[in-house]
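Q: Is it fine to ask for two folds in a single conversation?
A: Yes, each is treated on its own. Send the first.
Q: Here.
A: Result:
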Amino acid sequence: MSELHLYHGSNQIVGKPALITQNHTLDFGYGFYTTLNENQAQDFAQKVVIRQGKGTPIVNVYLFDEKALSDCSVLEFKSPNGAWLDFVCKNRNGTYKGPKYDLIKGPVANDDVYRTVTLYLSGLLSRTSTLKALKVKKLYNQIVFASEKALLYLKFKISYEVKNG
């Protein structure tokens, strides 16, 4: 069994990951969001505390059983291409009506990237210009657990508080 570490930034310990309905307008829609990048999770944990005005920045660490990649339906975007842009825009707008997946992997539209996507959505950037701009931005990754089945392959390991500096 192959396992790897995934990280989830929050303002609390999340010992039992769950599907959160309120996050349906995020990049990849409804699900539990994780990343392979520990620094990204630390940054996000700090942003959650600031946005919500409560809690402590916490990084939750999980073991991911990669057997899920063959047992579950997976949608993967290797780069911020046109299909990724369409998928993110539809999810962010709440208009995605396509197939449901257990796991979704790909680049994350962080605040900087999402500004570019917003310019595209408002008609100020063309599709070609948007995709060209995204290629030069530093893109982090995300792995979204979008079904109860997928969550079975994620096991809580530990959590820790993010220290400033």
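Q: Second one now.
A: Result:
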Amino acid sequence: MIAVKKLVKRFGLKTVLRGLDFEVQEGEFVALLGPNGAGKTTFLRILASLSRPTLGEVRVAGYLLPAQAAAVRRNLGVVSHLPLLYGELTAEENLRFYGRMYGVLELSQRINEVLELVGLTSRRRDLVRTFSRGMQQRLAIGRAILHDPDVLLFDEPHTGLDQDACDMLDRLLREVAGQGRTVVMTSHDLGRVEDLASRFDVLSRGGISASASRNGLGKNNLLDFYRQALAG
């Protein structure tokens, strides 16, 4: 579903990604880990067609980036640090706006389904600017899945959320992943992603320094694996 070969990304004289190889199969939930400045957000922006690679080959849902960016976006849902919602519109109006942009069929029914999934049916007619950070994050996920994409990208989705909101988000992520979607999520919260992801990749020094499935961790916990990956 995602295939990246020898990806290089430079900003001027600074090289952030150095020949990175990365592959995700359909239905996998991959947690992308790494220290600040490792290039996780940069990498997700490239996968999301928001940034162009300097060198290398990037394919998402079978389409080549950046040449086929429009086709990639039709098959992609993205949740980033910014919710990408309109505060002066209601939850329902936000979803209707994005649904029309994506050409979602039977849009009213789909909006009802998504609002139910993210637990916002009772707040559908409230302005988004009145929502808490957690509620906005829920609606952002609703926006991302509205057009039923094959691939979901989450960039630190727990950032700024309190404990209850994080727990709610975890339940929602499990439900979304359980629908067979392919998910790549960056996170610093190892305790949370250890229970969510099926695979863990560590991005360090411009490439994937280690990768393990949940079962492949063996006797080590995720923290031990992560530390060893950074030390190696």
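Q: Anything structural to flag on that second result?
A: Two points. Helices lie at 40-47, 69-74, 91-102, 107-117, 133-145, 163-177, 190-196, 222-231. The radius of gyration is 18 Å.
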